[in-house]
Amino acid sequence: RYRSGRLDKLLYVPLPTPDDRVSILTALSKKVKLSTGINMTEIGRSTKADGYSGADCAALLREAGLAVLRDYNDVLQHKLSTAKENGGTESDAGSASPAAVAATTTNTNTLANPPLLPIKLEITMEHFEYAFQHVLPSVSKRDQRMYERMRDRMARSRSRGPIADVTKEEEEKEQQPPSPSTKAPTPGG
After folding, report:
1. Coiled-coil regions in this chain (predicted)?
2. Domain span holding position 108
């Protein structure tokens, strides 16, 4: 039965190359504030990003952005608890804007209670490191190999005609890693 809107072709779309990941991250990062030391080429080509899809790159950037907000919240909470310990109120701790947080200092500027400097809400390399720990590739190495074998099998079958049936033995043989005792034949021997 035919279902409209469905493709009757299988398409293999490989994962982005390291250079593709750099392009994806660069395009996505145009809408966020990055620290001046951020190198998208380094991040996109990092081995930590191996196996990342375009969606994984977007998730990495999103998670790094959330890490900035977590850090900001931690600073606000610290300022709030410090204000309460010093006999102040919640309003003494400031509001949610960085300018307001910077302006909420006590009348005495001593080393014991230094003013809170304005907070820069920008993604740093530390935020990306945090994000790399929390965003895993959506396609495992095993799945990548399976899709590549499927692509190769389909490419071979196109050159021979209709898709050839693969026996269960052939499928299992393809999935098994080569045994370490198997040696390649030597020339002349």
Report:
1. none
2. 18-142
